[in-house]
Design goal:
This protein has ten helices and 36 strands. By secondary structure, it is of the alpha+beta class.
Length: 659
């Protein structure tokens, strides 16, 4: 609309005068166009125009807000993804959804609902982020986002699950190995973190994770139950537990593991899931179990099986691999109140086997019995005493045996661990004793593990020098320390070539009839210190092991004075050799094995004792190491699989004691 001069001219005199002076029209016309006024106001020389030009520039240039909107939107979308928030939706609603997944779900989709700090309460725990060992992957066997843990790391949910004393919580882990470890354990860590009523951390409780989780297996599903009723829980919870959270992790040195999901469901002890069905069919019965307060709905066939179990005595059978028994008494069966049968057979052609009831056997004593070749002893009377075996002379006796019990549990692993722990210095704390017990039980493995092959074995990475001197398998045998080798608590004895410090295992391979020139194995579990050329961590002339050579490599002597240098691809962990043939032996590093061609020539005819931190040769102790051996053993021939168990069991022990 055109400007008008209907307003009093006097009131516009100054304004219009300015226009006149600038040649913008005489006041006598009384009119001026709006377009001209806008042109003047928006002119670059006008203060108003300059201000508007500045604003326009800030909006439209490369650095301006308009051109930054796309980048800002992209960054917000990325942040939403990391926080588990659906792009473009209501943030308040998403917040509720995210909080709802804190108890269970897919960690890869809601990373910030998890934490790596299990010691903090839900209020204080920092959210998990992509950093260090933790990352998010989408290409795994779980067919979706997953949290990957590279090396060692552990995660748990921020929010904690309240556990009533009348319920069972079921957790289902879906996990996969992405990279197999060659320097650490491949066992998955499936646990729960336990908390008091005030939210403070108590400790963790570990589920049985099963065998090593390897890449070839793909996605593994493991289901566990958590309950304050011990009989219904997959793991015993510590006293005072009121809250818990699922925990997942890996201990693999150079491996990677990932968790796709941890699902959760809850069942009341007073109403089993089947109770949701109609209780109409007349052919179904209900049993009330007072001990667990659990109602189960049973068909007549299943009921018959329950009744049979109550009437017919259970017999869980435990077979033991054929084993050579030497002259030193060996605890064969532990004291077992549930044992209800068994049989021990002398399968050899010569020699006499001694059986001791309740204590080590002594020939022709009241508590002992002798078996000749082909004889057997039957325990149908259900003898529940501990049973010891020994050869009556130096001839090793091949033995085959089995026993049955009603509990389904073989107590021998705990019995062996108890006997070993009783011989230590008693300075170990609770965690160290638990780690030692777990190591022995893993090595024994219900009578089929590598423990049964050991002729001598020392856990050098004990709490103190006194504990680290105790032979694990030969009762009453100790290391003899020479020139005071330095002991590092829970690490081992450190070699010191300059001081010529070493120790004697007080074991002579050549006089042990349980091994021979073509039937022997030995190994050292070591730290990662780089070794000097020509040094040995353990040796007795023709039987020796060297570790951590440059290359990296290890060395071995097996029935020969010739030293073989074997490429290993790494340092630290288990270095071992095992021979059952005259023309070659197996060299093991960690979880790998290879053949080494070497014909046997002699087996320590001079009866050299096995030494640690060096080799024992014709000139005495020589080739001193600078590494830190943590475990060492001599045994009869072992398979690759048995030696792999030694490696993984020691890796778990070192982790448990904080090494």
């Amino acid at each position: 609309m055109p400007m008008t001069t209907d307003l009093p001219v006097g009131d516009l005199y100054e304004f219009i005068g300015d226009f006149r002076l600038n040649g913008d029209g005489p006041p006598t016309t009384g009119r001026m166009g709006l377009a001209r006024l806008q042109e003047i106001l928006l002119s670059s020389t006008s203060p108003v125009g300059a201000l508007l030009a500045n604003i326009t520039g800030r909006l439209t240039t490369a650095e301006g807000f308009t051109n930054q909107i796309t980048g800002i939107a992209s960054r917000v979308t990325t942040l939403e993804g990391l926080a588990g928030i659906s792009p473009g939706t209501d943030l308040a609603a998403d917040g509720t959804a995210v909080r709802a997944t804190r108890y269970w779900g897919r960690p890869g989709e809601a990373m910030r609902t998890w934490t790596a700090d299990l010691s903090k309460s839900a209020k204080e725990a920092p959210p998990l982020t992509v950093t260090g060992a933790f990352s998010v992957t989408t290409d795994g066997p779980g067919k979706g986002p997953a949290i990957r843990i590279t090396g060692e790391g552990y995660i748990t949910t921020i929010a904690k699950i309240h556990l009533d004393d009348d319920e069972v919580v079921e957790l289902t882990y879906r996990q996969a190995r992405r990279i197999n470890s060659t320097t650490g354990s491949n066992t998955a860590v499936n646990e729960v973190a336990c908390y008091r009523a005030d939210g403070t951390f108590i400790t963790t409780a570990a589920f049985n994770s099963g065998p090593d989780l390897l890449v070839a297996e793909g996605l593994r599903k493991s289901t566990y139950r958590v309950s304050l009723v011990a009989a219904l829980s997959s793991v015993a919870l510590p006293a005072g537990t009121c809250f818990f959270s699922p925990l997942f992790g890996g201990r693999a040195g150079n491996g990677a593991i990932e968790i796709t999901s941890i699902d959760r469901s809850t069942q009341s002890l007073t109403s089993a899931p089947e109770m949701a069905d109609a209780i109409a069919p007349e052919d179904r019965l209900f049993i009330f179990d007072d001990s667990a307060k659990l109602i189960k709905k049973l068909s007549p066939l299943l009921l018959a099986q329950y009744v049979e179990n109550l009437i017919v005595e259970k017999r869980f059978r435990f077979y033991q691999e054929p084993t050579l028994i030497g002259p030193e008494p060996k605890l064969w069966w532990a004291n077992d109140l549930f044992r209800n049968g068994g049989e021990i057979t002398h399968t050899g052609q010569t020699g006499t086997l001694l059986i001791g009831y309740g204590k080590p056997p002594v020939a022709y004593s009241a508590h002992s019995k002798t078996l000749g070749p082909g004889d057997w002893e039957s325990f149908r009377d259900g003898s529940q005493q501990a049973i010891y075996l020994a050869s009556a002379d130096t001839t090793p006796i091949p033995v085959y045996s089995f026993f049955t019990n009603t509990s389904g549990v073989n107590p021998i692993g705990d019995a062996i661990a108890d006997a070993f722990l009783a011989r230590l210095s008693q300075t170990q704390n609770t965690a160290e004793r638990a780690a030692t017990r777990a190591l022995i039980k893993r090595l024994y493995a219900d009578g089929v593990g590598p423990y049964r092959r050991f002729r001598t074995a020392y856990l050098l990475a004990g709490r103190d020098p006194a504990s680290s001197r105790v032979d694990m398998v030969r009762e009453g045998k100790l290391l003899t320390l020479v020139n005071d080798p330095l002991h590092i608590s829970n690490r081992g004895f450190q070699g010191n070539p300059g001081a010529s410090a070493y120790f004697d295992l007080n074991y002579v391979p050549a006089t042990d009839s349980g091994i021979g020139i073509n039937n022997h194995a030995m190994g050292v579990y070591s730290d990662t210190t780089v070794e000097a050329t020509g040094a040995f961590a353990m040796g007795a002339q023709n039987m020796a092991i060297g570790v951590n050579r440059s290359g990296p490599a290890g060395t071995g002597r097996s029935g020969s004075v010739s030293t073989d240098v074997v490429t290993t691809g790494g340092r630290g962990g288990l270095f071992a050799l095992s021979r059952n043939a005259a023309d070659k032996y197996r060299y093991i590093y960690g979880q790998t094995a290879q053949d080494v061609s070497r014909t046997t020539t002699a087996f320590n005819s001079a009866n050299f004792s096995m030494l640690g931190l060096c080799n024992n040769g014709s000139t005495g102790p020589t080739a001193f190491t600078q590494t830190i051996p943590r475990f060492m053993f001599v045994s009869e021939y072992m398979t690759d699989a048995e030696l792999f168990i030694v490696d993984s069991a020691m890796a778990e022990y070192m982790t448990a004691v904080g090494a």
